[in-house]
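Write out the bound-state structure for zinc ion.
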Amino acid sequence: MTASVWDAQDHDLELFERELSTFVPDRIFDAHAHLYAKAHFQAASPAIVAAGPDSVGLASYLQAMSELTPGRRYSGLFFGFPHAELDMDAANAFLAQEVRADNQSRAQMLIRPGMDPEFIRETVRREGFAGLKCYHVWATQQPTFDATVESFLPEEHVRVAHEEGLSITLHMVRARAMADPLNQQTIRTFAERYPNMRFILAHAARGFNPHHTIEGIGSLRGLRNVWCDTSAVTDGGAFEAIIDALGHDRLLYGSDFPVSHERGRCVAIGDSFLWLSEANTNFHVAYADLRPALVGLESLRVLKTACRTMRLSDSQVEDIFWGNAAELYGLS
Ligand SMILES: [Zn+2]
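---
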């Protein structure tokens, strides 16, 4: 892979200065970022991981974000990079060690179905994890892209989260995501039954096709233990729908680092979505010198548009980048 995947180039910085520098606050809590080491992957690591450094701890993260958004100070909610063939214990231990360096940052433990709930409780207490991160690649159902929430987030794990006051970042799957009645039912049931557990629905409630979030997010109206992060969403409409249905105080900025440092965009296509990248798209066109920007910048653009459309005040924008997470995690 080329260095252009990871490194901000002149046209990225120009985009940031032109469109984003007056929007993005100085202090940022990034509610969705991955820290990892290549050595923890037991098979070939994902392309974006393979293209970057061997060990991506807090310092690598801060360096990469300073290239994406110069001058901003970051803390965040971190977790490992979920992958079917991962040494999960090593990934969790690495994460806990890295995040300890910043008392305003938090870490979530990677979990998978079949893990003893008491093992999760003990590990969370010992390592100081603030939450849990589940993922469909470990679902008990195949194909995992069609998995129900329960098949990769068993209720006994949600109960531990409730008892320990933990957040759970949930990247739901199934074709229609938030518009899927089974997803809606399970999220609502778990949230109501376990009020001390806090759901963070990744990728604007997996609004990679924003129309799914627009259609379904109203089903979660009134739940006060559900948040959504903005990570890696680069098509318009989902953030507006979340702000409208749940309130601006339910939206958390997230970069999805290192996905933030890929080039391209994810766009709605019909009833699904497509990640446009140099690997699957010919960006050479006659009418322009087309230079794809980093995903993290594309996502910030869409967030800026949503905040303008919803007429959020500067302090409400700061809530999305810091205040909402500060309240959720008791930050100073
Ligand atoms: Zn992610």
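---
The pocket of zinc ion is lined by residues 32, 34, 231, 256 (CB under 6 Å).
The mean pLDDT is 96.
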